[in-house]
Amino acid sequence: MGVVIIDGSTVRDFVSNEAEFNKSADDKFEALDLNNDGVLSRAELRKAFESFRLIEAHFGVDVATPPDELTKLYDSIFDKFDCDNNGTVDREEFRNEMKKIMLAIADGLGSCPIQMALEDGDDESFLKQAADLEASKTSSA
Ligand SMILES: [Ca+2]
Ligand SMILES: [Ca+2]
């Protein structure tokens, strides 16, 4: 385990590598699709957000947010993912929205880097994968 500094360009590099990004998104999608029906339900996606703490930060959630507020917030996030409003999120919708979120996070980071701890076995977050990419660049340079 180590620490790596990431900024907006790290995240943007990660997202712009379409093959890698889609693979990560698909892996994530499969992990989240708990009943393996090929789509994410509201409950499945909510579970995902509870593990993406940085995304919660992006949407302005903090630990003091009351449960009913959280439910409203997760509903609104789900609606963003569910582009065709059919009540489920398919693979394509998931990829597209994750990409938008990561780019928004990249804009938010801008040139103001954050420190990420690299912990073995923690592959929960996309930012972690972006951080790994940065770490591999640094170590091979
Ligand atoms: Ca499912
Ligand atoms: Ca849909």
UniProtKB/TrEMBL annotation:
Protein keywords: Calcium
PANTHER family referenced in this protein's UniProt entry, alphabetically: CALCIUM-BINDING EF-HAND FAMILY PROTEIN (PTHR34574:SF5), CALCIUM-BINDING EF-HAND FAMILY PROTEIN-RELATED (PTHR34574)
Keyword Calcium included in the entry's annotation: yes
Domain spans labelled EF-hand: 20-55, 69-104
UniProt keyword Calcium present: yes
Superkingdom of the organism of origin: Eukaryota
Classification via InterPro entries: EF-hand-dom_pair, EF_Hand_1_Ca_BS, EF_hand_dom
Species this protein is from: Cinchona calisaya
Name this polypeptide is given: EF-hand domain-containing protein
Coiled coil stretches, renumbered: none
